[in-house]
Amino acid sequence: MSDEETRKEEQANEAEAAEEGQAQAQAEGGEETASGDSGLEQQLESYKEELMRAKAEMQNIRRRSEIDVEKAHKFALEKFVKELLPVLDSLEKAVESTEGHEVHNEEVVTRIKEGVDMTLDMFTRAMEKFNVQQINPVGEPFDPQQHEAMSMVPSAEAEPNSVIAVMQKGYTLNGRVVRPAMVMVAKAPEPEGGNVDEQT
């Protein structure tokens, strides 16, 4: 066999080996691509779930923010109302102090009382415009959400656990208690005589 024939045979063997190697590489590459596709799909699903969670969290944050802003608007006047309540109390006391007393100059007292009454009425109406409502619960059942019990008083006439007197009126702003009413609450009277020993 000549050198040229030997060279041709070697080249043919090399070409055949190269083709086999290429075919094997393609087969292995196909397997890797299949497993790679599966990994990509799992990663894609994971990203989708994270995106859904992020969207839900954003919706919750937006909803909470809207509620907070609404409350801030609704109760922005609360401090203002608290500051004005003592003025309202003083006007009521002034009206009460002129009632049932003998005064030398009846006409002057009448004018003062009328003026204070008008001021109190105007003030009360102004407060009502801002949804400030009075809590004056005489005769109503005691409600710890709106009333503050100052004392319990035995009473045969009133229902137990009902308000029999208001020491200081309470107020609400948009339905929320700004100041509870200070009240006296009825309780059942104790039986007369207490424990009596039976005579034999």
UniProtKB/TrEMBL annotation:
CDD domains: GrpE
Locations listed in the record: Cytoplasm
Residue segments, region Disordered: 1-48
Keywords annotated in UniProt: Chaperone, Cytoplasm, Stress response
Segments of skewed composition (Basic and acidic residues): 1-11
Biological function: Participates actively in the response to hyperosmotic and heat shock by preventing the aggregation of stress-denatured proteins, in association with DnaK and GrpE. It is the nucleotide exchange factor for DnaK and may function as a thermosensor. Unfolded proteins bind initially to DnaJ; upon interaction with the DnaJ-bound protein, DnaK hydrolyzes its bound ATP, resulting in the formation of a stable complex. GrpE releases ADP from DnaK; ATP binding to DnaK triggers the release of the substrate protein, thus completing the reaction cycle.
PANTHER family: GRPE PROTEIN, GRPE PROTEIN HOMOLOG, MITOCHONDRIAL
The protein's name in its UniProt record: Protein GrpE
Annotated organism of origin: Halospina denitrificans
